[in-house]
């Protein structure tokens, strides 16, 4: 909290998150999620949010085991699927000045792990569960140390 005011998502969001285009392949999404250690990727076109793809949307390890796919076959299969075919199109979003409390409420009620942040309809950031936890941790540390933010 700054000057007694409730914090906004602008303060905790990831600015300029990694994004995908609707015609990118599922293989690219899989690589980004694996290599970038990220769980949610907004799908945008000309700055406008079209959807979101999450780690859960991808073929997981369980599917690999069940289907018994070798890495090269899995890679070939993932290259044939476009992001637009599996992305979540109904996405809950927030604006830059949405309170952190409201964002946390939306995430909890919707049982979702992230909220794309929009400004004038354009994607400008992403707030994740991890961002929320870091914010709460800072609040706790500040109150323990007697520091007000």
Would you give an account of this structure?
- Strand 4, helix 5 (100-110) and strand 5 (114-119) form a beta-alpha-beta unit.
- Helix content is 40%, strand content 20%.
- The strands form 2 sheets. It has a 4-stranded mixed sheet with strand order 1-6-5-4. Strands 2-3 form a two-stranded antiparallel ribbon.
- It contains 6 helices and 6 strands.
- The radius of gyration is 18 Å and the shape is globular.
- It is α+β, with helices and mostly antiparallel strands and 149 residues long.
- Helix 1 packs across helix 3 (71-80).
Characteristic key phrases:
alpha+beta, four-stranded mixed beta sheet, 149 residues, 6 strands
Question: Topology of this structure?
Answer:
Layout: E1 14-15, H1 26-36, E2 40-45, E3 48-54, H2 61-67, H3 71-80, H4 83-86, E4 94-95, H5 100-110, E5 114-119, E6 122-128, H6 129-144
Parallel strand pairs: 4-5
Antiparallel strand pairs: 1-6, 2-3, 5-6
Helix pairs in contact: 1-3
Question: How many helix segments?
Answer: 6
Largest beta-sheet characterization: 4 strands, mixed
- Strand content range: 15-25%
Average pLDDT works out at: 85
Reading the helices and strands in chain order gives EHEEHHHEHEEH
Low-confidence parts lasting 5 or more residues at pLDDT below 50?
none
CA-atom Rg in angstroms:
18 Å
Share of residues in helices: 25-40%
Strand arrangement, largest sheet? Answer: 1-6-5-4
Outline:
With 149 residues, the protein is α+β, with helices and mostly antiparallel strands. The chain contains six helices and six strands; from the N terminus they run βαββαααβαββα. The chain starts with 13 loop residues before the first strand and ends in a 5-residue tail after the last helix.
């Amino acid at each position: 909290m700054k000057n007694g005011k409730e914090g906004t998502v602008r303060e905790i969001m990831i600015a300029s998150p990694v994004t995908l285009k609707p015609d990118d392949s599922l293989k690219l999404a899989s690589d980004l999620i694996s290599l970038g250690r990220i769980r949610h990727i907004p799908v945008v076109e000309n700055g406008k949010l079209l959807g979101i793809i999450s780690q859960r949307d991808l073929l997981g390890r369980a599917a690999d085991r069940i289907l018994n796919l070798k890495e090269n076959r899995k890679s070939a299969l993932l290259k044939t699927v476009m992001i637009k075919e599996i992305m979540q199109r109904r996405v809950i979003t927030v604006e830059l000045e949405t309170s952190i409390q409201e964002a946390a409420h939306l995430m909890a009620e919707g049982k979702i792990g992230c909220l794309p942040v929009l400004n004038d309809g354009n994607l400008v950031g992403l707030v994740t569960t991890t961002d929320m936890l870091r914010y709460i941790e800072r609040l706790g540390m500040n109150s323990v140390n007697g520091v007000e933010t």
